[in-house]
Each structure stands twice: as C-alpha cells, then as structure tokens.
Amino acid sequence: KLKAINDRLGHVAGSDVLRTIGDVLRRNARTTDLAVRYGGDEFVVLLPQTTLAEAAIFAERVRSEVEARAVHGFHPTVSIGVASLSRPDSVETDGQLLNRADAAAYTAKRQGGNRICAGAAESDV
Q1: Radius of gyration of the chain from Cα atoms?
Q2: Which of 26, 31, 69, 86 is most open to solvent, judged by the fewest CB atoms within 10 Å of its CB?
Q3: What is the DSSP string of 56-70?
Q4: Burial classification of residue 49, based on how many CB atoms lie within 10 Å of its CB (0-12 exposed, 13-18 middle, 19 or more buried)
Q5: CA–centroid distance for 99 within its chain
Q6: Inter-residue contact 14 to 2 (CB < 8 Å)
Q7: What is the pLDDT, as a whole number, of residue 20?
Q8: pTM of the model
Q9: pLDDT along the chain (125 residues), means of 10
Q10: 3-state secondary structure 30-51
C-alpha cells in the first residue's frame, strides 16, 4: 500500500513508486490508449478497440513489469481490475464501466494483491 511506503520510507519514495507505475503504463500504452492517474494510488487506462482478454494481457504485462522494478530497495506490486463493454451498442455509462473495473481491483486486493481480476460482464450487472 502506498500509505505504508510513505510511512516507512517517506513521501519521496511513495512518489517514486507512482512515477514508476506511470512509466510502465506509458511504455506499454499504444498511441490510441489513455493512461491517467485517477487519484491517490489509482490509475485508469482506457484501451479502445480492445477485448477483455486483450486488456487482461495488457494488465498482466503491466503487473509483471511493475513487480520487476526495484524502487528504493523493494519491488512494488499492483492490483488491477479489468472491465470492458460487452457489445458495441452498449448503453452502459462511463461511470458504470469504471465501477466494474474498480470492483474488480478491490477483488484482486482482497485475494491477496499483486494480481489482476476481470470485472463482471456488463450483462451480469
């Protein structure tokens, strides 16, 4: 958790972890993708024209690359939630899609972290 890093190593170390995650996202994102810090220690990546399976591959690549990076002597980890629209004519709002991805990220955290988890299908909510 970012708070534990800040408390133990200081806010500079916490900022360096966030910067490392941002660098990994930037290096893996395509020019059509959008990666942003959403707040605190959360990031959102929009992957247009990407299936849920492809998004999961992207997420696993990011998870693995973040864990492989040493920052102030330790290897940070991330918990990633993935969700996608199930059909092109979807009426799901951006907020609903984000909520499904966020719920999946919390599931990943509850399952021990350092993993990805796919959100419920749009038709299941």
Answers
A1: 15
A2: 31
A3: HHHHHHHHHHHHH--
A4: exposed
A5: 13
A6: yes
A7: 97
A8: 0.90
A9: 88 95 97 93 93 95 97 94 86 91 95 92 61
A10: CCCCEEEEEECCEEEEECCCCC
How far, in Å, CA of 115 to CA of 102, rounded?
14
Amino acid letter, residue 15: S
Identify the active-site residue in 7, 16, 33, 41.
Answer: 41
Element (H, E) at 110: helix 94-110
How many angstroms separate the CA atoms of 38 and 92, rounded?
Answer: 20
What's the pLDDT at 37? 93
pLDDT at 89: 83
Q: Active site includes 33?
A: no
